[in-house]
Structures are given as structure tokens and as C-alpha cells.
Amino acid sequence: MTWANTEFRNLDLGDKRLKNRAIKLIENLAKSPKSSIPESCQGWAETQATYRFYANENVTWDKMLQGHADNVEERIRLSDSAVILCLQDTTELDFNGKQTEDLGRLSYDAQRGMYLHPTLCVTPDRIPLGVTDAWMWARGKSKENDQHQDSLKESCRWIEGYERVAEMAERCPEQTLVYVADR
């Protein structure tokens, strides 16, 4: 059994074939994480299968994350560390110049992309356990159109992240989960 089979054994995409495709895709992308999809896939048929996988309505980022997050929580419970650091921060996913739809502005109006706000769990000895939560969003097209809406929406990420860590702390009573965020 491969590491991806083990890590995503609880992945539920509603179809065993989709789960198998996900595991194969994860293994391919992990071999060369800086490569594009066509470079990671060995041939045109594999590249097409990957794009069909991403286009499938049953495949969502939150389902994929949940398959991993379940195992992260198990690693937390089994950890010898009494303290687990739950680290959060926002990262920009910059797709400027790419032909991608539904993107919003990033640092300035002409820059296009989206934001990712993950929770990474690590031990104080710097052993990464994985990502347990993430929040993704895209701002509006211009600052003038939705400045007030953005600030309300974005400010929720720290509170929601804390709530998810608090819920996980109830399920992991042997560890002390320390929430670290930038706001």
C-alpha cells in the first residue's frame, strides 16, 4: 500500500474509481510538485484523465482536504507531544496571466488570483502533522465595488479557524492545541 493510499483511505468522493484516480493523481503530482499537470502526467491520456477528474462535480477541494484532515487528527491523537501548534496565515494564489475564471483581485486591482487560509498542525519539535482546515475565497474584481463586503468576509477566517481548532481539541483531549494566527 502506498503512502497516498494510506493517507487518503477515508476519502469519499462517492465513487471508488474517483478515489483511485485521486490517489494516482496525488502520487504523480507529489513526484514533481513544481511541474505542471501535463509534465506530471506521463502522456496525453493521463493528462486528459486528470482534467476530467478536476471537472467532476463530485470532486471538491473540501472533500479532498477532509480525506487528509481525518488522518491529521489521528496523528495528533497518537502523538507523543502533549502540545500541538495549529498555525494559520493567509497566502495569495497568484494566477495573473493565466486563463482562469472566477478570480478576484489580490494586492492590487490588476493582479488576479484567490486566497488560501489553511491551518497547519505541527509539534513543538517542528514535526508537521498536516493541514486540518482551510478557507479559500476570491475578492471582487475591484476594490471600489466591494471593499466593505471583503473586510467582513475576510475577518471571519480567524474566528472560524479558532472554532475548528476548538472542536478538534474536544476530540483530542490528551493534547493541548495551541492556535496561532496573525490577527
Fold and architecture overview:
There is one protein chain. The chain is an alpha+beta fold. Helices cover 46% and strands 21% of the residues. It is built from 6 helices and 6 strands. The protein has helices at 3-7, 16-31, 37-40, 44-55, 61-78, 143-171, and strands spanning 83-88, 91-94, 104-105, 112-122, 128-137, 176-180. It is globular, with a radius of gyration of 18 Å. The mean pLDDT is 88.
Q: H/E series, N to C?
A: HHHHHEEEEEHE
Largest sheet: 6 strands, mixed
Distance between the termini: 41 Å
- On the 0 to 100 scale, the average pLDDT is 88
What descriptors fit this protein?
alpha+beta; 183 residues; globular; six-stranded mixed beta sheet; 2 domains; 6 helices; 21% strand; Serum Albumin, Chain A, Domain 1
Concise synopsis of the structure shown:
By secondary structure, the chain is an alpha+beta fold. It has helices at residues 3-7, 16-31, 37-40, 44-55, 61-78, 143-171; strands at residues 83-88, 91-94, 104-105, 112-122, 128-137, 176-180.
Outline the secondary-structure elements.
Layout lengths: L2 H5 L8 H16 L5 H4 L3 H12 L5 H18 L4 E6 L2 E4 L9 E2 L6 E11 L5 E10 L5 H29 L4 E5 L3
Parallel strand pairs: 1-6
Antiparallel strand pairs: 1-4, 2-4, 3-4, 4-5
